UniProtKB/TrEMBL annotation:
Protein name according to UniProt: Probable membrane transporter protein
Membrane topology: Multi-pass membrane protein
Pfam families: TauE
InterPro entries in the record: TM_pro_TauE-like (IPR002781), TSUP/Inactive_protease-like (IPR051598)
Family: Belongs to the 4-toluene sulfonate uptake permease (TSUP) (TC 2.A.102) family.
Residues that span the membrane, as ranges: 7-37, 43-62, 96-115, 145-178, 190-207, 243-263
Keywords: Cell membrane, Membrane, Transmembrane, Transmembrane helix
GO CC terms, sorted: plasma membrane
Cellular compartment(s): Cell membrane; Membrane
PANTHER family per record: MEMBRANE TRANSPORTER PROTEIN MJ0441-RELATED, MEMBRANE TRANSPORTER PROTEIN-RELATED
Highest taxon of source: Bacteria
Coiled coil spans: none
Length: 265
């Protein structure tokens, strides 16, 4: 029965990745913890499942000519390196601290999705921003794209290794705001980069024995089904409504995780 539930969890995670290019970590980690896995094991499983989901979704976007890794390669290099750092740090963080930190991560992600839903569209990149300070920051980041991409990639990778996220949302923001990708191309490319990042984190967790392999495989099977189906429907989804709904779901998951941590302690 447990593995049937894991299969369903993987399917839902794949749908999340396929529809909005986000990591399935928001679904996998809380669900695995509720099933009785430790936070570190749940994160390891999430990274494994995320790797498969991202590859399936990226392939679908590639078939629709919405993938461009040429400029995103530097983010990939940085994120793969950072994921190793995060994966080795993760087991040394106390269980309660890791769960609480992950809950905060969920809330932050929820806010990003909510405002993304409230303000859908390609951002203004012409330097006429209402916020001059934001424009200066963007210009600074674009002044040396390689260095900026490497540093931002390392940061994304560390967060990925710590919390089990492939970093899809953060990578998407870098591609769209810094590298000026279109939204569809940004989603397709970010999911492929996310696959490399998650794979790196998975290896790190496997080395530290925080990877429940059997459960991860069942979850990965589910994510292939959900990810492929959802990616094909991605262009038909109302992004504004979906983003707000997902924001609410992430907040609910954060509350559940905090409540679960409190009960277990």
């Amino acid at each position: 029965m447990e593995y049937v539930l894991v299969l369903c969890i993987g399917c839902i995670a794949g749908i999340v990745t396929g529809l909005i290019g986000a990591s399935g970590v928001m679904v996998v980690v809380p669900a695995f913890i509720i099933l009785g896995y430790t936070t570190s094991d749940a994160i390891g499983a999430s990274l494994f499942i995320d790797t498969i989901a991202s590859l399936v979704v990226a392939w679908t976007y590639y078939q629709n000519k919405n993938l461009n890794l040429k400029q995103g390669i530097w983010i990939t290099i940085g994120s793969v390196s950072g994921a190793q750092i995060g994966s080795f740090i993760s087991p040394f963080i106390p269980e309660v601290g890791l769960s609480s930190a992950f809950s905060i991560f969920l809330v932050i992600t929820a806010v990003l999705f909510w405002f993304r839903g409230a303000k859908v569209g390609v951002p203004n990149l012409n330097g006429n921003d209402a916020n001059p300070q934001q424009s200066r920051i963007l210009k600074l980041l674009r002044s040396n794209v390689i260095v900026s991409s490497l540093l931002l990639g390392i940061l994304v990778g560390i967060i990925s290794g710590l919390f089990g996220a492939g970093g899809g949302v953060m990578i998407l923001l870098i591609l769209v705001f810094v590298m000026q990708y279109s939204m569809h191309e940004g989603i397709g490319t970010s999911t492929l980069i996310m696959a490399f990042t998650a794979a790196s984190g998975t290896i790190g967790h496997a080395i530290t024995s925080n990877l429940p392999l059997k459960a991860s495989i069942f979850g990965a099977i589910g994510t292939v089904i959900g990810g492929r189906f959802a990616a094909k429907l991605a262009n038909k989804v109302n992004e504004k409504v979906l983003s707000k709904v997902m924001g609410g779901v992430f907040v609910a998951l954060a509350v559940i995780m905090l409540a679960t941590t409190g009960i277990n302690n």
